[in-house]
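ok, trying the design again with the full structure, not the truncated one.
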């Protein structure tokens, strides 16, 4: 059995299925590029047949990514598979991931098909997929709750049809580690041709055990592919988190004995990018990528770490992309220092033009804020995504007045297709007044479904990062804005969301 553990990232497919996490094509491409830098083996770029928007995203990523395999999800029917193959045409290395439910509950209530019909459809789908690509993954959806005898028949049959990877999803997050590990082991032992395919795990986090279950699938079950997402993004409580599973296998190589191709120094930048794009804030105590993951507050711990780092640290912060360089940048820092810090943070911008734009923003911020922390730099770079959108709206200036006992008022000047307009309004607070001032002119009719403010670094000098999620006619978009003034950050986030609402193609939710 191979000692290589394949990392299959599904942030752009399963991750995007979490309510409110939908991404534009450009945002997906940016994240795919970061996943390639991370040296992820397989990037599941979307579900090509689910919408024109998803088709375009898969196609764009397939054309741009050279080092990772690019995969599209597809239901087990010829139309979906043909659409996936079409989207993947430009890929250096392409995979089709086809699935059909095999649990009694799903077959009877959702598909209204008999087990024999499901078996037949799975075989036909894999046969058809193998005619169009060499790399075919098959998933029995709700596999963990399926009848083991029936599942073995399906898996044996699809291997015969040419499936190269068999993925066993715990679709509803019901498994516990020992049982899931043994389930994979049983399947591998009972399916006669099991050695002809790579076995994969795909665990959801409904009971908080997705990472533990995935690792048990590897250790006990002998799986050699883990499906996971950055920050554990995904349906409901999410998927297995890439950063946790990767660092567990790397840090405990003594136990797992497996090799990974992942360049872990790009993990923090990837986490930050996904969080900023989706508006899903990373909790401070989140393993590996949380702001406190390497912070030592207690005197005893600080003393221990100063004397010998490994007293309280099992991983090095810099190995996952937290900068070890504690020199804080400021307005006297030059372009080279800025560029070097980007490198230390695992951020690669695609062109010198992008570096220049980010550096100009850095200088602008440094004029208003004496110390620029790593978190500020990551936010600045994240703002590049806004610049790539076709900007219909842009902030020019904002003034607002608030005083105890009085209703706040705001006046905002912004551009609409290059032309300056002005809006005024009062509101419950300065933020409310400012956003109502924008709406007084735009009249978007959008409903705000999320507003959140997060201090990027520790003090009141910090920039506030605001996420605004808007919904209109079934579309959901996230806008993010950062500024030391949270009212301005809110206005930037709101205008960014309006820009996306305007430019985003229709999509329908994937059904995996
Ligand atoms: O959770 C699940 O069952 C899935 C499949 C489509 C692989 O996401
Ligand atoms: Zn899933």
């Amino acid at each position: 059995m191979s000692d290589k553990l394949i990392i299959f990232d599904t942030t752009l497919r399963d991750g995007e299925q979490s309510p409110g996490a939908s991404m534009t094509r450009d945002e997906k491409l940016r994240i795919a590029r970061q996943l390639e830098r991370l040296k992820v083996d397989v990037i599941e770029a979307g579900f090509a047949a689910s919408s024109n928007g998803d088709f375009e995203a898969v196609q764009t990523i397939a054309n741009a990514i050279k080092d990772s395999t690019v995969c599209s999800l597809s239901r087990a029917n010829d139309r979906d598979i043909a659409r996936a193959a079409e989207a993947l045409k430009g890929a250096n290395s392409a995979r089709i991931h086809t699935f059909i439910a095999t649990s009694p509950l799903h077959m009877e209530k959702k598909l209204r098909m008999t087990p024999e019909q499901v078996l037949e459809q799975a075989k036909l789908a894999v046969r058809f997929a193998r005619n169009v690509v060499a790399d075919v993954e098959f998933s029995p959806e709700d596999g963990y709750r399926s009848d083991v005898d029936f599942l073995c028949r399906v898996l044996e049959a699809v291997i015969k049809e040419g499936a190269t990877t068999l993925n066993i999803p715990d679709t509803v997050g019901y498994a516990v580690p020992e049982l899931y590990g043994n389930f994979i082991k049983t399947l591998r032992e009972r399916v006669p041709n099991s050695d002809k395919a790579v076995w994969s795990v795909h665990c959801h986090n409904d009971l908080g055990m997705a990472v533990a279950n995935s690792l048990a699938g590897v250790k006990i079950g002998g799986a050699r592919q883990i499906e996971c997402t950055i920050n554990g993004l995904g349906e409901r409580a999410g998927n297995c988190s890439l950063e946790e599973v990767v660092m567990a296998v790397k840090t405990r190589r003594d136990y797992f004995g497996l090799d990974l191709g992942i360049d872990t120094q790009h993990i923090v930048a990837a986490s930050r990018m996904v969080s900023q794009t989706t508006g899903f804030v990373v909790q401070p105590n989140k393993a590996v990528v949380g702001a406190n993951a390497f912070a030592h507050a207690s005197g005893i711990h600080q003393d221990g770490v100063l004397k010998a780092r490994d007293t309280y640290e099992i991983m090095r912060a810099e190995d996952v992309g937290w900068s070890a360089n504690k020199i804080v940048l400021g307005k006297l820092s030059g372009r080279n220092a800025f560029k070097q810090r980007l490198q230390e943070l695992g951020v690669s911008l695609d062109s010198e033009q992008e570096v220049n734009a980010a550096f100009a923003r850095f200088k602008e911020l440094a004029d208003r804020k004496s110390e620029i922390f790593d978190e500020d730099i990551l936010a600045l770079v994240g703002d590049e995504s806004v610049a790539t959108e076709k900007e219909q709206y842009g902030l020019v200036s904002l003034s607002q007045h608030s005083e105890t006992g009085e209703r706040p008022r705001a006046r905002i000047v912004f551009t609409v297709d290059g032309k300056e307009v002005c809006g005024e309004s009062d509101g419950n607070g300065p933020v409310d007044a400012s956003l109502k001032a924008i709406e007084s002119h735009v009249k978007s009719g959008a409903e705000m479904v999320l507003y959140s403010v997060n201090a990027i670094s520790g003090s009141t000098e910090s920039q506030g990062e605001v996420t605004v999620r808007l919904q209109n006619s079934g579309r959901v978009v996230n806008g993010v804005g950062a500024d030391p003034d949270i009212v301005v950050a809110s206005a930037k986030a709101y205008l960014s969301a309006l820009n996306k609402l305007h430019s985003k193609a229709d999509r329908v939710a994937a059904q995996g």
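Keeping the full-length input from now on. The radius of gyration is 24 Å.
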